[in-house]
Amino acid sequence: MNRREPLIFELSGEGKRAFFLPPLDVPEKREILEFLPCRENIPGFPEVSEPEIVRHFTRLAQTNFCVDTTFYPLGSCTMKYSPKINEKIAGLSHFLTIHPLAQEELVQGSLELIKLLEDYLCRITGMAYFTLWPAAGAHGELTGMMMIRAALTRRGNPRKIVLIPDSAHGTNPSSAHLCGYHVQEIKSNEEGTVDVEDLEKMMTDEVAALMLTNPNTLGIFEKDICRLAEIVHRRGGFVYMDGANMNALLGKFRPGDHGVDVIHLNLHKTFSTPHGGGGPGAGPVGVTEELEPFLPIPVIKREGERLVVENNRPLSIGRVRTFFGNFLVLVKALAYILSLGDEGLKQVAEIAVLNSNYLRKSLEGIFHLKYSSPTLHECVFSDKWQREKGVQNIDIAKRLIDFGLHPPTMSFPLIVQGALMIEPTETESKVELDAFIEAMKQIAYEAEKNPEILKTAPHRAYVRRLDEVAAARNPVLRWKG
Amino acid sequence: MSYIPLSQRDIEEMLRRIGVSSLDELFQSIPEEIRWKGSLNLPSPLSESELLEYFEKLGQKNTYPQFLSFLGAGAYPHLIPAVVDYLSSRGEFVTPYTPYQPEVSQGTLQIIFEYQTLICQLTALEIANASLYEGATAVAEAVLMAQRIRNRSKILVARSLHPQYRQVMATYVKNLGLTIEEVDFDLKSGQLSLDDLTKRLSEEVIALVVQNPNFFGVVEKLEEAFSLSHQKGALAIAVIAEGLSLGLLKPPGEVGADIACGEGQSFGLPLAFGGPYLGFIACRENFLRQLPGRIAGQTKDAEGKIGYVLTLSTREQHIRREKATSNICTNQAWCALRATIFLETLGPKGLRELAYYNLQKANYALEKLCSLPGIKRHFSGPIFNEFVLELEQPVNKITSQLLNRGIIAGYPLERDYPELKNCLLLCVTEVHSKEKIDELVRAFKEVLS
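Above: the input entities. Below: the structure tokens describing the complete assembly.
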């Protein structure tokens, strides 16, 4: 198992093949090539057989931890189980084979599916409208901020500043910046939340929006959200909610009812579509009635029995992605919602919060918890007590691998030094949670008695600890033969 | 349905451990007055068999599969070898996160490394990232990257760049104080007008963006256009919407491109109503620090064994926040995995043959169709697997008559290019047998006569 799997390029041998075409069935005209600027060959491109391909990828697959095999408690990533029926549904040929530029009449099924998902996301969040085109959370943030900017511009002044708490995910400031805004950071208070008084001081007529993650990345609900929204609105700003942690709120809190003007959801988190090793996701954006004119094109509209694709929308921010977003991701999310219904979604939030609090309670006193406020779907411990023995969060994380467990999110949020951010989700059994708790206790014990075993971990993975510093210092980013 | 693996007894035990008496009590941090207590008004939950039936019915409302289609225009029907579906559907590829913990993500990381290498080889450029969302946002990212390298104010874009790509790019740069100017295409050849380009080039220009083959399927003469741009200090960005063309045509790196970007859907991704697809980007090595998105790099472990990690993250949002090169976080990793399996399965010969088949079949169709009275080839420039026909009769009338015969004849260009009245963009690939092409020709003949 521990033999290094070669790169495919190292398996290459001239003349080996895994792909064969039928004979060309039209009369061949070689002279066409004379008019074309053609390449000679593709230097280095691998030549391998089918059995080699299958073994190569199967072996590589076996070196990955994934939700299907392993507890994967990455905080703020919501690594829940991805139902298999949803994969099967997304693989139906009537979804797979549809060209996105076909006439509306021929794709009414796809359009209806989009409309249904928009509608259900509105009901879940309390927003008035949704656009499903953003391809990921950060893309949703950008889209949402662009709508805010467009609305403010129409009022006469796009303004200059976006307020973002210091606990926010890095995409928030990055998206605001890409939208032409300066970012001002709001310091979290002792409870780990945004302080009403702080916001009051920072909110001026040049602030376009407050970007708020709720529950925030500490897993804490921003309980003053109504007051915060009121302050922002009073000065003519908008409230953007990063809905990455919506899993905690399903059926428990509808942001649209309480002053949130724009929200993005991560279908690859809350709505169970698989992460695929880093994507594809989908980051639908919900808005209030007021922001509807600024939605990106196209907008799908009902005209009697028919659904039509509307592109002529003068106030729209424009197009943010080709065609209809990551459509198959939308299919899976709709299937998820329809399979759970009202009670099922509410139960998702309840058990996600139960599991998280069970972990928190079981590990309190063993690992340091910077904020004592109650938490919902995730909790953020730190390595503070272990650091006294020279053990850091990275050592704890790598040691977990030896127990067959995926580490939590590390070193984030930035306001907790040595953070270990744990989000179990609702799809973990008590047996799995107990195994994690036992492993963490063992690691805390080892930090006291035998810190070396942590600092040299992992010991039982496919590779030992990798040198990330060397990778950045001397970048090797492709095979060169 | 439910995917919750806790028994009632588990729940009770856990509540006891936490020290609360009910699940509701866990939500007390949400103030009572704003906690939602009503129904979300969603339909009653469906069981697995009901769910499948529901979606099968919904799918049946898509009548598109009943038609013989010649639509391309940025989304291309191609063969997908069985190993692509088989291997990419493994749970170890479908259900991990971004490989933040490299020691337990070597599969994902090595595949990204192979993918980056393949993209470099295909484009003849030196470095590539791990993927972007899709073709249009890849172009937008390339333009933003060029702006960071050349701190100027104007972007020149070929009018023959995919209309939706141009729209997305415009959306992205709108708030950043950049202007976009379009460069005309030559009305005869369909290729970029070098005269118009020369007129528009100046020291203000960040980059020239040209799609090849362009939106009309016409193969460009990139060398000249890019060399003119370089003379004014502007960067050269080659956009590839039909990735398969890279199997046959001269790669961007050999014709002077500084950045190549575009759409990898043709590499093993189904049409799927437009997504998920695969944005790719590659560039010259000296632009490394400005490249957006994830990058995998090779390193060694504590015992000297070769391994892979995500690297150079000081470019990225989680470290640099508002100063990052891009806001992208989640990308299209699984689509890049499919592209990797696809490209490694085809190999250099397979890819070239497949591209060659597309070329031959499209040219066969073009020749047959142009032999009919009432149809002529609109552009004289060489084509790859798409071409523009100009009809004597109104295009809507003809396409609706063809639709009645079960044929989707292509993409009418007039909606995006008013100057291309009665013009139709058709795509012919290896999925179109001679029999199907002949059926198209026959149908055209009938409706035109």
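Note for the figure: Chain B is about 35% helix and 15% strand.
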